[in-house]
Amino acid sequence: MSEALFEFSWRHPEAKGPALPWRQSDVPLYPTFLGRAPSMEDGRAANTSLSSEKPMSLTPIQARDEFPILKHKTYLNSCSLGALSLRGEAYLDEFRERWHSMGASAWYEHWMGRMAMLRGRMAAFMGGAEGTVALVPSTSAALATVAESVPEEATRQRTRVVCSELDFPTLAYQWAAKPGVELVVLPSPDGVGMDPAQFEEAVDERTLFLATSHVFFTTGFIQDIGRLAEIARSAGAYSVFDGYHGAGQIPLDLSDAGVDFYTAGPLKWLCGGPGLAYLYVRPELIGSLHPRIPGWFGASNAFDFEIRRMEPHDDARRFEMGTPALPTVHTALGGQEIIEEVGIERIEVQNRALTEQLVNGCRERGFTLTTAEDPAQRSAIVMVQHPNPPGGVKHLAEAGFIVDHRPGHIRVSPHFYNTEEEVHLFLDTLAGFPT
Fold it and tell me: Are strands 182-186 and 133-136 parallel, antiparallel or unpaired?
Protein backbone atom coordinates (compact mmCIF):
# COMPACT_ATOMS: atom_id res chain seq x y z
CA MET A 1 0.00 0.00 0.00
CA SER A 2 1.49 3.35 -0.99
CA GLU A 3 2.32 6.09 1.45
CA ALA A 4 -0.03 8.45 -0.35
CA LEU A 5 -3.02 6.46 0.86
CA PHE A 6 -1.98 7.13 4.45
CA GLU A 7 -1.62 10.90 4.30
CA PHE A 8 -3.90 12.84 6.63
CA SER A 9 -4.00 16.09 8.50
CA TRP A 10 -4.64 15.63 12.18
CA ARG A 11 -5.68 18.03 14.89
CA HIS A 12 -6.59 17.38 18.51
CA PRO A 13 -10.02 18.88 19.30
CA GLU A 14 -8.60 21.16 21.99
CA ALA A 15 -5.52 22.18 20.02
CA LYS A 16 -4.97 25.60 18.48
CA GLY A 17 -3.12 26.35 15.30
CA PRO A 18 -2.72 24.39 12.09
CA ALA A 19 -3.33 20.68 11.78
CA LEU A 20 -0.35 18.38 12.08
CA PRO A 21 0.71 16.55 8.91
CA TRP A 22 0.95 12.80 9.12
CA ARG A 23 2.25 10.14 6.83
CA GLN A 24 2.91 6.41 7.08
CA SER A 25 6.43 6.89 8.43
CA ASP A 26 4.90 8.51 11.51
CA VAL A 27 2.71 5.55 12.48
CA PRO A 28 1.03 4.72 14.72
CA LEU A 29 -1.26 7.74 14.65
CA TYR A 30 -4.98 8.16 15.01
CA PRO A 31 -6.10 10.76 12.46
CA THR A 32 -9.74 10.16 13.50
CA PHE A 33 -9.09 10.38 17.22
CA LEU A 34 -11.34 13.40 17.58
CA GLY A 35 -13.20 13.15 20.86
CA ARG A 36 -13.06 9.39 21.27
CA ALA A 37 -10.84 6.58 22.45
CA PRO A 38 -8.98 4.55 19.81
CA SER A 39 -10.99 1.69 18.34
CA MET A 40 -10.07 -1.87 17.42
CA GLU A 41 -9.89 -0.64 13.84
CA ASP A 42 -7.13 1.72 14.97
CA GLY A 43 -5.37 -1.22 16.55
CA ARG A 44 -5.49 -3.19 13.34
CA ALA A 45 -4.02 -0.29 11.41
CA ALA A 46 -1.30 0.15 14.00
CA ASN A 47 -0.42 -3.54 13.97
CA THR A 48 0.23 -3.48 10.22
CA SER A 49 2.93 -0.89 10.67
CA LEU A 50 4.86 -2.23 13.63
CA SER A 51 7.43 -4.06 11.57
CA SER A 52 7.96 -5.11 7.98
CA GLU A 53 5.07 -6.69 6.11
CA LYS A 54 6.84 -10.05 6.10
CA PRO A 55 8.02 -10.98 9.63
CA MET A 56 11.70 -11.75 10.02
CA SER A 57 12.87 -15.12 11.24
CA LEU A 58 15.55 -15.50 13.88
CA THR A 59 17.21 -18.63 15.17
CA PRO A 60 17.83 -18.76 18.92
CA ILE A 61 21.55 -18.31 18.27
CA GLN A 62 20.95 -15.25 16.09
CA ALA A 63 18.64 -13.81 18.73
CA ARG A 64 21.49 -13.78 21.27
CA ASP A 65 22.87 -10.68 19.58
CA GLU A 66 19.72 -8.82 20.65
CA PHE A 67 20.53 -9.19 24.36
CA PRO A 68 23.60 -7.26 25.60
CA ILE A 69 23.74 -8.99 28.98
CA LEU A 70 24.71 -12.24 27.26
CA LYS A 71 27.99 -10.69 26.12
CA HIS A 72 29.38 -10.51 29.66
CA LYS A 73 27.19 -12.78 31.81
CA THR A 74 25.75 -16.26 31.63
CA TYR A 75 22.16 -15.29 32.26
CA LEU A 76 20.04 -18.19 33.55
CA ASN A 77 17.43 -16.21 35.46
CA SER A 78 14.60 -15.49 33.03
CA CYS A 79 12.01 -16.70 35.53
CA SER A 80 12.90 -13.67 37.66
CA LEU A 81 13.46 -11.12 34.89
CA GLY A 82 13.80 -11.61 31.16
CA ALA A 83 16.85 -10.06 29.52
CA LEU A 84 16.42 -6.60 27.99
CA SER A 85 16.76 -6.54 24.21
CA LEU A 86 18.29 -3.95 21.92
CA ARG A 87 14.91 -3.90 20.21
CA GLY A 88 13.29 -2.96 23.52
CA GLU A 89 15.88 -0.23 24.03
CA ALA A 90 15.12 1.17 20.58
CA TYR A 91 11.42 1.39 21.37
CA LEU A 92 12.26 3.02 24.71
CA ASP A 93 14.51 5.54 22.96
CA GLU A 94 11.65 6.32 20.60
CA PHE A 95 9.35 6.88 23.59
CA ARG A 96 11.85 9.24 25.24
CA GLU A 97 12.53 11.21 22.07
CA ARG A 98 8.84 11.72 21.36
CA TRP A 99 8.30 12.87 24.93
CA HIS A 100 11.09 15.40 24.44
CA SER A 101 9.99 16.59 21.02
CA MET A 102 6.20 16.38 21.19
CA GLY A 103 5.17 16.52 24.82
CA ALA A 104 1.54 15.61 25.45
CA SER A 105 0.65 15.36 21.76
CA ALA A 106 2.72 12.16 21.67
CA TRP A 107 -0.21 10.55 23.49
CA TYR A 108 -2.58 11.11 20.60
CA GLU A 109 -0.13 10.73 17.78
CA HIS A 110 1.90 7.74 18.93
CA TRP A 111 1.49 6.27 22.40
CA MET A 112 -2.16 5.25 22.09
CA GLY A 113 -1.08 3.42 18.98
CA ARG A 114 1.68 1.57 20.77
CA MET A 115 -0.84 0.41 23.36
CA ALA A 116 -3.18 -0.81 20.61
CA MET A 117 -0.31 -2.67 18.97
CA LEU A 118 0.62 -4.44 22.17
CA ARG A 119 -2.96 -5.47 22.90
CA GLY A 120 -3.34 -6.84 19.40
CA ARG A 121 -0.06 -8.71 19.40
CA MET A 122 -0.72 -10.27 22.78
CA ALA A 123 -4.24 -11.37 21.87
CA ALA A 124 -2.89 -13.12 18.78
CA PHE A 125 0.10 -14.54 20.65
CA MET A 126 -2.10 -16.05 23.36
CA GLY A 127 -4.51 -17.54 20.86
CA GLY A 128 -7.32 -15.18 21.73
CA ALA A 129 -9.74 -13.33 19.52
CA GLU A 130 -9.31 -9.66 18.75
CA GLY A 131 -10.28 -7.46 21.67
CA THR A 132 -9.75 -10.08 24.38
CA VAL A 133 -6.67 -8.58 26.05
CA ALA A 134 -6.46 -5.62 28.44
CA LEU A 135 -3.31 -3.84 29.62
CA VAL A 136 -3.25 -3.66 33.42
CA PRO A 137 -0.65 -2.61 36.00
CA SER A 138 0.02 -6.05 37.48
CA THR A 139 -1.33 -9.54 38.06
CA SER A 140 -2.70 -8.29 41.38
CA ALA A 141 -4.66 -5.59 39.56
CA ALA A 142 -5.86 -8.10 36.98
CA LEU A 143 -7.12 -10.49 39.66
CA ALA A 144 -8.77 -7.66 41.59
CA THR A 145 -10.56 -6.57 38.43
CA VAL A 146 -11.73 -10.11 37.73
CA ALA A 147 -12.96 -10.58 41.29
CA GLU A 148 -14.89 -7.30 41.14
CA SER A 149 -16.39 -7.81 37.68
CA VAL A 150 -18.46 -10.95 37.95
CA PRO A 151 -22.21 -10.49 38.62
CA GLU A 152 -22.95 -9.77 42.26
CA GLU A 153 -25.65 -12.41 42.23
CA ALA A 154 -22.99 -15.02 41.51
CA THR A 155 -20.82 -13.79 44.39
CA ARG A 156 -23.78 -14.13 46.77
CA GLN A 157 -24.61 -17.66 45.66
CA ARG A 158 -21.04 -18.93 45.35
CA THR A 159 -18.48 -18.07 48.00
CA ARG A 160 -15.75 -20.66 47.47
CA VAL A 161 -12.46 -20.11 45.65
CA VAL A 162 -10.22 -23.13 45.02
CA CYS A 163 -6.45 -22.85 44.50
CA SER A 164 -3.36 -24.91 45.35
CA GLU A 165 -0.53 -24.62 47.84
CA LEU A 166 1.95 -24.33 44.96
CA ASP A 167 0.43 -21.13 43.57
CA PHE A 168 2.16 -17.78 43.79
CA PRO A 169 0.89 -15.88 46.88
CA THR A 170 -0.58 -13.07 44.78
CA LEU A 171 -3.26 -15.39 43.52
CA ALA A 172 -4.45 -16.58 46.92
CA TYR A 173 -4.08 -13.17 48.59
CA GLN A 174 -6.78 -11.73 46.36
CA TRP A 175 -9.46 -13.87 47.93
CA ALA A 176 -7.94 -14.49 51.34
CA ALA A 177 -8.44 -10.80 52.08
CA LYS A 178 -12.12 -10.78 51.12
CA PRO A 179 -14.70 -11.25 53.86
CA GLY A 180 -17.20 -14.00 53.27
CA VAL A 181 -14.96 -15.93 50.86
CA GLU A 182 -14.00 -19.51 51.65
CA LEU A 183 -10.50 -20.02 50.29
CA VAL A 184 -9.76 -23.70 49.69
CA VAL A 185 -6.03 -24.41 49.33
CA LEU A 186 -5.45 -27.88 47.92
CA PRO A 187 -2.29 -29.71 49.05
CA SER A 188 0.19 -31.04 46.52
CA PRO A 189 0.50 -34.83 46.78
CA ASP A 190 4.22 -34.78 45.96
CA GLY A 191 5.30 -31.17 46.48
CA VAL A 192 5.82 -30.81 42.73
CA GLY A 193 2.47 -30.72 40.96
CA MET A 194 -1.25 -31.22 41.26
CA ASP A 195 -3.61 -33.96 40.12
CA PRO A 196 -6.56 -32.49 38.20
CA ALA A 197 -8.78 -34.94 40.05
CA GLN A 198 -8.13 -32.92 43.21
CA PHE A 199 -9.71 -29.87 41.62
CA GLU A 200 -12.54 -31.95 40.23
CA GLU A 201 -13.36 -33.16 43.73
CA ALA A 202 -13.11 -29.72 45.33
CA VAL A 203 -14.92 -27.58 42.73
CA ASP A 204 -18.69 -27.75 43.15
CA GLU A 205 -21.86 -25.66 43.15
CA ARG A 206 -20.43 -23.49 45.95
CA THR A 207 -17.36 -22.53 43.88
CA LEU A 208 -17.09 -19.14 42.22
CA PHE A 209 -13.52 -19.44 40.91
CA LEU A 210 -11.09 -22.23 40.20
CA ALA A 211 -7.98 -20.05 40.46
CA THR A 212 -4.56 -21.56 39.94
CA SER A 213 -1.31 -21.30 37.98
CA HIS A 214 -0.54 -22.46 34.49
CA VAL A 215 3.08 -23.09 35.52
CA PHE A 216 4.02 -23.32 39.20
CA PHE A 217 6.79 -20.92 40.15
CA THR A 218 7.77 -23.33 42.92
CA THR A 219 8.56 -26.31 40.68
CA GLY A 220 8.07 -25.43 37.01
CA PHE A 221 5.24 -27.98 36.79
CA ILE A 222 2.89 -27.34 33.83
CA GLN A 223 -0.82 -27.78 34.52
CA ASP A 224 -3.39 -28.84 31.92
CA ILE A 225 -5.39 -25.62 31.79
CA GLY A 226 -7.84 -27.02 29.25
CA ARG A 227 -8.86 -29.80 31.59
CA LEU A 228 -9.03 -27.49 34.59
CA ALA A 229 -11.17 -25.00 32.63
CA GLU A 230 -13.57 -27.82 31.79
CA ILE A 231 -13.75 -28.84 35.45
CA ALA A 232 -14.69 -25.27 36.40
CA ARG A 233 -17.20 -24.94 33.57
CA SER A 234 -18.91 -28.23 34.44
CA ALA A 235 -19.49 -26.97 37.97
CA GLY A 236 -20.71 -23.53 36.82
CA ALA A 237 -17.58 -21.81 38.12
CA TYR A 238 -15.15 -19.44 36.45
CA SER A 239 -11.60 -20.52 35.62
CA VAL A 240 -8.74 -18.09 36.38
CA PHE A 241 -5.14 -18.87 35.50
CA ASP A 242 -2.01 -17.04 36.57
CA GLY A 243 0.12 -17.51 33.47
CA TYR A 244 2.97 -15.20 34.39
CA HIS A 245 5.43 -18.11 34.56
CA GLY A 246 4.17 -19.74 31.38
CA ALA A 247 3.60 -17.12 28.69
CA GLY A 248 6.71 -16.79 26.57
CA GLN A 249 8.15 -20.23 27.21
CA ILE A 250 5.29 -22.53 26.17
CA PRO A 251 2.67 -22.12 23.40
CA LEU A 252 -0.76 -20.77 24.30
CA ASP A 253 -4.14 -21.28 22.64
CA LEU A 254 -6.53 -19.83 25.18
CA SER A 255 -9.56 -19.91 22.88
CA ASP A 256 -9.11 -23.61 22.25
CA ALA A 257 -8.46 -24.29 25.95
CA GLY A 258 -11.72 -22.57 26.88
CA VAL A 259 -10.27 -20.64 29.83
CA ASP A 260 -12.26 -17.72 31.22
CA PHE A 261 -9.44 -15.51 32.51
CA TYR A 262 -5.68 -15.66 32.03
CA THR A 263 -3.07 -13.24 33.32
CA ALA A 264 0.45 -12.83 32.00
CA GLY A 265 3.07 -10.12 31.67
CA PRO A 266 6.29 -9.06 29.97
CA LEU A 267 8.50 -9.19 33.08
CA LYS A 268 9.84 -12.72 32.66
CA TRP A 269 9.78 -14.98 29.61
CA LEU A 270 8.43 -12.28 27.29
CA CYS A 271 11.51 -10.10 27.87
CA GLY A 272 9.65 -6.83 28.21
CA GLY A 273 10.36 -5.60 31.73
CA PRO A 274 8.37 -4.75 34.88
CA GLY A 275 5.33 -2.58 35.47
CA LEU A 276 2.74 -4.13 33.15
CA ALA A 277 0.50 -7.17 32.88
CA TYR A 278 -1.98 -8.64 30.43
CA LEU A 279 -5.48 -9.83 31.20
CA TYR A 280 -7.18 -12.17 28.73
CA VAL A 281 -10.96 -12.56 29.05
CA ARG A 282 -12.99 -15.10 27.10
CA PRO A 283 -14.95 -13.02 24.58
CA GLU A 284 -18.31 -14.61 25.37
CA LEU A 285 -17.98 -13.35 28.95
CA ILE A 286 -16.98 -9.75 28.36
CA GLY A 287 -20.46 -8.31 27.93
CA SER A 288 -21.69 -9.87 31.18
CA LEU A 289 -18.82 -8.50 33.27
CA HIS A 290 -19.04 -5.00 34.72
CA PRO A 291 -15.93 -3.86 36.63
CA ARG A 292 -16.66 -2.45 40.07
CA ILE A 293 -13.09 -1.13 40.14
CA PRO A 294 -13.40 1.00 37.00
CA GLY A 295 -10.79 3.22 35.44
CA TRP A 296 -10.78 6.08 32.96
CA PHE A 297 -9.08 3.97 30.31
CA GLY A 298 -11.90 1.44 30.64
CA ALA A 299 -14.51 3.90 29.38
CA SER A 300 -15.44 4.12 25.71
CA ASN A 301 -16.66 7.67 26.34
CA ALA A 302 -13.51 8.70 28.23
CA PHE A 303 -12.95 11.79 26.12
CA ASP A 304 -16.45 13.11 26.76
CA PHE A 305 -15.17 13.78 30.30
CA GLU A 306 -18.67 13.01 31.55
CA ILE A 307 -18.57 12.02 35.23
CA ARG A 308 -22.26 11.08 35.52
CA ARG A 309 -22.19 8.31 32.95
CA MET A 310 -19.53 5.73 32.18
CA GLU A 311 -19.86 3.61 29.09
CA PRO A 312 -17.42 0.69 29.24
CA HIS A 313 -15.67 -0.51 26.13
CA ASP A 314 -17.37 -3.46 24.48
CA ASP A 315 -14.09 -5.43 24.49
CA ALA A 316 -11.49 -6.29 27.11
CA ARG A 317 -10.39 -2.67 27.41
CA ARG A 318 -13.28 -2.21 29.86
CA PHE A 319 -10.99 -3.87 32.44
CA GLU A 320 -8.21 -1.30 32.07
CA MET A 321 -7.57 1.15 34.86
CA GLY A 322 -5.32 4.19 35.04
CA THR A 323 -2.46 5.43 32.92
CA PRO A 324 -0.41 2.42 31.81
CA ALA A 325 3.35 2.12 32.24
CA LEU A 326 4.24 3.50 28.83
CA PRO A 327 7.99 2.80 29.07
CA THR A 328 7.18 -0.86 29.61
CA VAL A 329 4.64 -0.83 26.79
CA HIS A 330 7.57 0.11 24.55
CA THR A 331 10.14 -2.36 25.91
CA ALA A 332 7.47 -5.07 25.84
CA LEU A 333 6.90 -4.45 22.14
CA GLY A 334 10.60 -4.95 21.50
CA GLY A 335 10.71 -8.20 23.43
CA GLN A 336 7.51 -9.43 21.81
CA GLU A 337 8.87 -8.82 18.32
CA ILE A 338 11.85 -11.04 19.05
CA ILE A 339 9.73 -13.77 20.66
CA GLU A 340 7.54 -13.84 17.56
CA GLU A 341 10.46 -13.78 15.14
CA VAL A 342 12.09 -16.74 16.84
CA GLY A 343 8.68 -18.42 17.18
CA ILE A 344 7.13 -19.88 20.32
CA GLU A 345 7.30 -23.42 18.94
CA ARG A 346 11.04 -23.11 18.36
CA ILE A 347 11.43 -21.49 21.77
CA GLU A 348 9.65 -24.41 23.40
CA VAL A 349 11.92 -26.91 21.64
CA GLN A 350 15.06 -25.01 22.68
CA ASN A 351 13.89 -24.59 26.26
CA ARG A 352 12.98 -28.26 26.59
CA ALA A 353 16.42 -29.29 25.33
CA LEU A 354 18.17 -26.99 27.79
CA THR A 355 15.91 -28.13 30.63
CA GLU A 356 16.60 -31.80 29.99
CA GLN A 357 20.33 -31.09 29.83
CA LEU A 358 20.05 -29.33 33.21
CA VAL A 359 17.97 -32.08 34.78
CA ASN A 360 20.22 -34.88 33.57
CA GLY A 361 23.41 -32.97 34.37
CA CYS A 362 22.28 -32.17 37.92
CA ARG A 363 21.36 -35.77 38.59
CA GLU A 364 24.67 -37.00 37.19
CA ARG A 365 26.45 -34.69 39.63
CA GLY A 366 24.45 -35.91 42.61
CA PHE A 367 21.98 -33.06 43.00
CA THR A 368 18.36 -33.69 43.93
CA LEU A 369 15.71 -31.80 41.99
CA THR A 370 12.19 -30.72 42.80
CA THR A 371 10.72 -31.35 39.38
CA ALA A 372 8.13 -33.42 37.56
CA GLU A 373 9.15 -36.93 36.58
CA ASP A 374 7.31 -36.59 33.27
CA PRO A 375 9.36 -34.33 30.95
CA ALA A 376 6.12 -33.17 29.30
CA GLN A 377 5.11 -31.54 32.58
CA ARG A 378 8.42 -29.70 33.03
CA SER A 379 9.01 -26.11 32.05
CA ALA A 380 12.33 -24.25 31.96
CA ILE A 381 12.20 -23.66 35.72
CA VAL A 382 14.64 -26.06 37.35
CA MET A 383 14.70 -26.22 41.14
CA VAL A 384 17.97 -27.65 42.50
CA GLN A 385 17.81 -28.65 46.15
CA HIS A 386 20.73 -27.16 48.03
CA PRO A 387 21.76 -26.72 51.70
CA ASN A 388 22.98 -23.17 51.08
CA PRO A 389 21.03 -21.56 48.23
CA PRO A 390 22.20 -17.95 48.89
CA GLY A 391 25.80 -19.09 49.08
CA GLY A 392 25.46 -21.11 45.91
CA VAL A 393 23.96 -18.15 44.05
CA LYS A 394 26.78 -15.91 45.27
CA HIS A 395 29.42 -18.45 44.21
CA LEU A 396 27.85 -18.68 40.77
CA ALA A 397 27.60 -14.88 40.48
CA GLU A 398 31.32 -14.53 41.17
CA ALA A 399 31.91 -16.84 38.21
CA GLY A 400 29.61 -14.80 35.96
CA PHE A 401 26.43 -16.88 36.26
CA ILE A 402 23.17 -15.15 37.19
CA VAL A 403 20.58 -17.40 38.82
CA ASP A 404 18.23 -17.05 41.79
CA HIS A 405 17.21 -18.92 44.90
CA ARG A 406 14.01 -19.87 46.66
CA PRO A 407 13.66 -21.63 50.03
CA GLY A 408 15.84 -24.73 49.95
CA HIS A 409 16.63 -24.39 46.24
CA ILE A 410 18.81 -22.75 43.64
CA ARG A 411 16.49 -21.84 40.79
CA VAL A 412 17.85 -22.03 37.26
CA SER A 413 15.72 -20.78 34.38
CA PRO A 414 17.30 -20.90 30.91
CA HIS A 415 15.56 -19.36 27.92
CA PHE A 416 15.85 -19.66 24.16
CA TYR A 417 18.84 -17.31 24.08
CA ASN A 418 20.93 -19.67 26.21
CA THR A 419 23.17 -22.44 24.86
CA GLU A 420 24.09 -25.98 25.80
CA GLU A 421 27.65 -24.81 26.44
CA GLU A 422 26.41 -22.29 29.01
CA VAL A 423 24.41 -25.00 30.76
CA HIS A 424 27.46 -27.31 30.80
CA LEU A 425 29.65 -24.60 32.34
CA PHE A 426 26.94 -23.80 34.88
CA LEU A 427 26.75 -27.43 35.97
CA ASP A 428 30.51 -27.67 36.44
CA THR A 429 30.61 -24.39 38.39
CA LEU A 430 27.74 -25.42 40.68
CA ALA A 431 29.35 -28.79 41.30
CA GLY A 432 32.52 -27.00 42.34
CA PHE A 433 30.82 -25.18 45.21
CA PRO A 434 31.33 -27.10 48.49
CA THR A 435 28.07 -28.12 50.14
Answer: unpaired
